[in-house]
């Protein structure tokens, strides 16, 4: 990799890190605020999420306008791999990822009705375990001892969150079917979130497509799914609950105008977040996004405690967040323990990752020519 290419690649990586963290935190805090306003209509919010994803199509058209047509076409002759079976499906294969995204988002949005922010943030850490298993048993990547230690510490933090949630619920005597449903929904949602992330990574290795186009396809597909399932899902929910009526979200927006403002903020922020999510997966891998997303959850959790918590909170919650952060830092080699061979383990993994990234960069060098963001001065 030439020095100039390394600088461009590094610039793009930093842009993706900042974009993912900032837009992801923005969108999650917006949803948390809507939840505080008691605007908890899962399918309605998911529909706005897909509208935000569909907005990424404007980036596709913008790039075609900014780049001369001949130059744009000339870059398409570069291919990362020979034709394969997936290319028969073409871009339609991303309809599957939209389906996974729909189930994940709907179940997660529904879980906000049953669980606290702490419980939801803890369950979001499951993604790093699922991606680890994918790398270990599917991609056949090596496993190092500092990674195992990091995962053990993260698991301890997650178990602490579970104890806090159970203890808080027992004190208020509200533990019951609602919490059980919430835990079940979050577990299933993280399985589909993992399928979404690793499918995007795998398909983008085999099909030439830009991140904004992937997000746009998912958005359009998701809007269609929401339109088809909107009425049936409402009838499957508790018909005696007035919040399950079809007109309830529209009535809430009409009564409180600030909800419309925050819905617009959510739509824009989720559009930016999903673009940077796919971009991060494209230039790095699914684990890179998983790491950023897990770290973002800790930031969101801390901000939620500071901004939205009006009553007292369990003092063990910050401790659980600290334990999760330490586990993430060790797993991602930010915090290196110079004992028991953990430092040697980190060095081996860094070397292994560098070899993997160099191979990936050489096979994807054509992407930099299509990326207008990297050419901005």
TrEMBL record:
<feature type="transmembrane region" description="Helical">
    <location>
        <begin position="39"/>
        <end position="60"/>
    </location>
</feature>
<feature type="transmembrane region" description="Helical">
    <location>
        <begin position="298"/>
        <end position="316"/>
    </location>
</feature>
<keyword id="KW-0472">Membrane</keyword>
<protein>
    <recommendedName>
        <fullName>EamA domain-containing protein</fullName>
    </recommendedName>
</protein>
<feature type="transmembrane region" description="Helical">
    <location>
        <begin position="322"/>
        <end position="342"/>
    </location>
</feature>
<feature type="transmembrane region" description="Helical">
    <location>
        <begin position="215"/>
        <end position="237"/>
    </location>
</feature>
<dbReference type="InterPro" id="IPR037185">
    <property type="entry name" value="EmrE-like"/>
</dbReference>
<feature type="transmembrane region" description="Helical">
    <location>
        <begin position="181"/>
        <end position="203"/>
    </location>
</feature>
<feature type="transmembrane region" description="Helical">
    <location>
        <begin position="115"/>
        <end position="134"/>
    </location>
</feature>
<dbReference type="GO" id="GO:0016020">
    <property type="term" value="C:membrane"/>
</dbReference>
<feature type="transmembrane region" description="Helical">
    <location>
        <begin position="146"/>
        <end position="169"/>
    </location>
</feature>
<feature type="transmembrane region" description="Helical">
    <location>
        <begin position="259"/>
        <end position="277"/>
    </location>
</feature>
<feature type="transmembrane region" description="Helical">
    <location>
        <begin position="93"/>
        <end position="109"/>
    </location>
</feature>
<keyword id="KW-0812">Transmembrane</keyword>
<keyword id="KW-1133">Transmembrane helix</keyword>
<feature type="transmembrane region" description="Helical">
    <location>
        <begin position="12"/>
        <end position="33"/>
    </location>
</feature>
